[in-house]
Amino acid sequence: MPIHLKPRTLRTFQSRLLAWFRANRREFPWRASRDPYRVWVAEIMLQQTRIAAVIPYYERFLRRFPDVRALARARQPEVLKFWSGLGYYSRARNLHAAAKAIVAKHNGEFPRHLEAALSLPGIGNYTAAAILSIAYDEPLAVLDGNAARVLARLGALCGDLREPHAWRNLSETASQMLARDSASDWNQALMELGETVCTPQSPRCAACPINRWCEAHAQGLAHEIPAPRKKRVTVNIQIAAAILCDPQGRTLLVKEPGAHDHALFSRLWQFPAVEVKRNPGAELTKHLRVTLGMNGATLEALPEARHGVTFRNVTLLPFLARVDHLPANTTAPARILPLVKIARVPISSATRKIAASLL
Length: 359
Ligand code: SF4
What we know:
The structure is a single chain. By secondary structure, this protein is of the alpha+beta class. It has two domains: 7-218, Hypothetical protein, domain 2 (Endonuclease III, domain 1), CATH 1.10.340; 235-356, Nucleoside Triphosphate Pyrophosphohydrolase, CATH 3.90.79. Helix content is 44%, strand content 12%. The protein is built from 15 helices and seven strands. The protein has helices at 7-24, 36-46, 51-64, 68-73, 76-83, 90-105, 114-118, 125-136, 145-154, 164-177, 183-196, 215-218, 261-264, 280-292, 349-358; strands at 235-245, 250-254, 273-276, 300-301, 305-309, 312-322, 334-338. Strands 1, 3, 4, 5 and 6 form a five-stranded mixed beta sheet that branches. The termini are far apart. 35% of the residues are buried. The mean pLDDT is 92. The protein binds iron/sulfur cluster. Iron/sulfur cluster binds next to α9 and α12.
């Protein structure tokens, strides 16, 4: 059911939520200023990543790249190195490309207009609305999962919120309810309420500043909304990886384009690896022969590790191969470096886990 509030009631509703937010807002490093660059970096890092995990990365990244010009000047491997461990590396590549575009086309200032923001790499509707409203107070409503849940409960909207017609309905509601003269605080207030009070499993309706307008609360439906999403089937895959080690303790990292590569290794440096089915050792041996020209490597199985990527359960099967010489002629780009120092180059968390099984 859509939410209908008379203009005066809507203003009271907005004042209540804004006052609550201003008194209860949590402090995060990205809330220390409204510098669009800092807001933008935070929004990108927070996509698909928890707040607690983002904070140390955010602080390190901002120390190394304090403004958009510093980021635009940097080389991509260094940007990826400071992103290393956060996952979804296309975010870092797009951030870097967008920084260059902002310096080249917008005199180093994040554009204020929606069209211009949307033309930057890695900026979609949600991210553009979040940055422009939070940094510049542009009157654009932001709808994330938290805000959507609050709005759905306010209007007692049942069903799966991610169904296209439900999401459209919620987007319209978000725009109608937006406090247009305080868009920055308003959007953050709605999302913050969803994260801290109107939580998925345990909404604290008694402590909620807007409970008197809430249909789900009035009807005792807060726990039923939203309906659980239909689960996607999880796929199990196994990746065997070879940690080659020469007598000097050096190893070989490669960049291997492959089916498993995008989500797991993200086109960063990785150990030679291949998806395997029945006989991991034999399949990896064949892979080493085909891609590195290695014949008869003796593989020693190391403890396996689990790695979850969206809708996939990955089992990492690391193998140690002691060799006299590391392969020199490889089909893919390769680097040789001390095994204990592989984190000097950009690597994904899957590669860290594989190394950890030995180190
Ligand atoms: Fe959410 Fe309860 Fe507040 Fe309604 S009253 S918005 S269900 S916390």
